[in-house]
Amino acid sequence: xxxxxxxxxxxxxxxxxxxxxxxxxxxxxxxxxxxxxxxxxxxxxxxxxxxxxxxxxxxxxxxxxxxxxxxxxxxxxxxxxxxxxxxxxxxxxxxxxxxxxxxxxxxxxxxxxxxxxxxxxxxxxxxxxxxxxxxxxxxxxxxxxxxxxxxxxxxxxxxxxxxxxxxxxxxxxxxxxxxxxxxxxxxxxxxxxxxxxxxxxxxxxxxxxxxxxxxxxxxxxxxxxxxxxxxxxxxxxxxxxxxxxxxxxxxxxxxxxxxxxxxxxxxxxxxxxxxxxxxxxxxxxxxxxxxxxxxxxxxxxx
Length: 302
Known about the structure:
Order of helices and strands: EEHHHHHEHEHEEHEEHEHEH
Shape: globular
Helix content: 25-40%
Number of helices: 11
Strand order of the largest sheet: 5-7-6-9-10
Largest sheet: 5 strands, mixed
Radius of gyration: 20 Å
Structural class: alpha/beta
């Protein structure tokens, strides 16, 4: 929204994209996450034709709203709230290490499954995010969508997309690696850490290591990921890489699924040590940890 400071008139660019377009309203709410989350959930139920988005800029926003998420959004189908009647999409833009493990722990039964239901995703660029939201808005089977991504991705140079990516592509649950040759190692990650792995690979001139982005966490795109692993059949090791501590992130969710499709190849993991906090409070400590994590991703042996 743009506001003229002289006459205080308002202009919303999203209302002027095309003639006869849908209405776009943007409101700031009070800082009461549970109340806002409940309102947005109820609004999506009353107006199923609307695509409702809720942005939590930091992990603690979602934490404070967790009771509403657990008791209504997650449990709507099983508790009789008939969540299937609403196209409820809420976007969580989390702190770098938000507790995304909570979403996957709640991913079960009819709220989340059947391939057209609840989505837990972490798109790596603007094009992927656009197609993810577009798919959510067009689906007839209306289920929640959670997007976990750090705010740094808003300005990350590798998150840019071309106009062609927005108009001629579609959302890819698994983003392939077409640069690796004679692959010896496969790194699987999601979101920002994947971009950092690409930078590290370039520094090392290590193009026999493939880096695969898992863009959709749930429902797990088993067939797509298995096909990508088979395409790099010469790889000896498969490594799941996450920034979060061992007791957070997608580690426990991913390892059994990767081992199921690895065809007897060893599946390893690189992550931070278990911690009660998703991140250290020291920028210097974080930098040391991150360098160690990237090094281990390329050197850990099965």
